[in-house]
């Protein structure tokens, strides 16, 4: 348990360091927009659009991979039950109301990295844009005060891994 305490303490320190360096109003507004761009229903619309345009393989990869990612995400959330920053830090209030109780891993980040991987496979010339967006999603979740840095790091790992496995099996 000592290593988990060390990781948590480092996470809290990094969280406070990031919070101290952001320009609250500008970053909060920008973070809200970036975070909303990673809402799950948009991925469903993308899959439906791809299917309707004749890209059924791409739609299948999104549907199957995102389903697997969501199942793993929910299992991890319910297993770890890590409280959100506002729930454990005495002097902090988040800037948005999170959609669920626990913070580990970040679902927005996981979904964004899943999509960045998929889109990079299909349109490789834009991979920097896709991964820049997914990194901004991760940072937005921290800046909005609903995740610690390790929540987003594990979200990125989860999303990327699910995409890699889905491509290996279905592509």
UniProtKB/TrEMBL annotation:
Reaction catalysed? di-trans,octa-cis-undecaprenyl diphosphate + H2O = di-trans,octa-cis-undecaprenyl phosphate + phosphate + H(+)
Q: Which Gene Ontology cellular-component terms appear in the entry?
A: plasma membrane
Q: Which InterPro entries match?
A: PAP2/HPO, PAP2/HPO_sf
Residues crossing the lipid bilayer are 30-48, 54-76
| Residues in Phosphatidic acid phosphatase type 2/haloperoxidase domain copies | 57-167
GO MF terms here are: undecaprenyl-diphosphatase activity
User: Where in the cell?
Assistant: Cell membrane
Query: This chain belongs to which protein, by name?
Result: undecaprenyl-diphosphate phosphatase
Give the species this sequence originates from.
Answer: Marinomonas gallaica
**Taxonomic lineage of this organism?**
Bacteria, Pseudomonadati, Pseudomonadota, Gammaproteobacteria, Oceanospirillales
